[in-house]
Amino acid sequence: MSAELLTVPEAMARLKVSRWTLYNLIRSGQITSILVSERCRRIPADALDAYVTRLCEEVA
């Protein structure tokens, strides 16, 4: 399995949201993230895709 892992700034740019908003989405469980080390968080690109898909389905 090969998943693209994004840094927080990369994920922020893809969603066009602030750092605060992204971390709130992570804390609430709406977006999955992983800790690579104590201070190194990565967000799977698939997690962003799944989040956007859920948002689109909610409004449909």
UniProtKB/TrEMBL annotation:
Lineage: Bacteria, Bacillati, Actinomycetota, Actinomycetes, Streptosporangiales
GO MF assignments: DNA binding
Record domain Helix-turn-helix: where: 5-54
InterPro entries linked to this entry: HTH_17, SinI_DNA-bd
Name of the protein in its database record: Excisionase family DNA binding protein
